[in-house]
# Entry
Amino acid sequence: MVGLFQKKKTTPLILGNLVHRGLEERFKNGTESAVRLISDECEKAFQDAGDIYSLSPEWLSKQEATATSMVRNAPEKWNIRNMELAEEEFNIPYDDYFNLVGKIDGIARREDGTIWVRDYKTKGSFDNAFINDLLQRNVQGNIYCYAARKLGKEVQGFEVLMIRRPTIRQKKKEVLSRYIERIVSDYLSRTDFYYAESRCVIPNPNEMFQRNLGITMFRLRQCYDKNLWEENETSCHQFGSCCMYLPLCSRHVGAEDAFDMLGEDHHPELSNMKGEKDNGIGKRTK
# Structure
């Protein structure tokens, strides 16, 4: 909203992103190719993670081992050959202020001919009964289905493939290599525990979702017009990762040097904003 972007991104800090890329690579080019991809991504992106996010090499090694185990042992039935779309970005105008922007993990056609928006999730725990109820009201799933239909895909709903994060913990005085061995063994021996899937039919049109989305957009317009934004500290470490703006909010020395300002040439959707607004950091954008 304020036009900031990271000069150097460290997206694989998000375990889910790393696992998703690994799964796509496995289903396309095989398991060993996926393992190499994860290793290469970690080596490239984690080289400065310790400096930016104060993460230890041990933590980074656990992330790589966890992602590799998750991808290597994922059920083969998840490998749907007939993917309508994969890694599909969308940028859909919503009103004069905002666009809906995002990336759909995939749109898959199942054996019965139905088409579903597919999303991968890494979670600490999951309960199918709770998840099935939650999916009905899931904002992300509804936005993805809305976007898929705008892209011309008659999707039935939202399909979530879930992988549980490791439940075993490193023992006191246990060396890292031994702990990683136990993680690998646990995923291999308890696939039914670590992997689950759920689907939810999303109606078209979804009147409740569109109503709630309209309310959200109205509140965002008020924030933008008044340049008043809430700090939501509960989001700093959501989804198993650090918010990329955390160094700025924490006022780390030199954090501002990691960001640049963007204008309409980088973010065309900013041109939809009516009038000029002070973004609160000394720069005016449309």
User: Anything to note?
Assistant: The chain is about 40% helix and 20% strand.
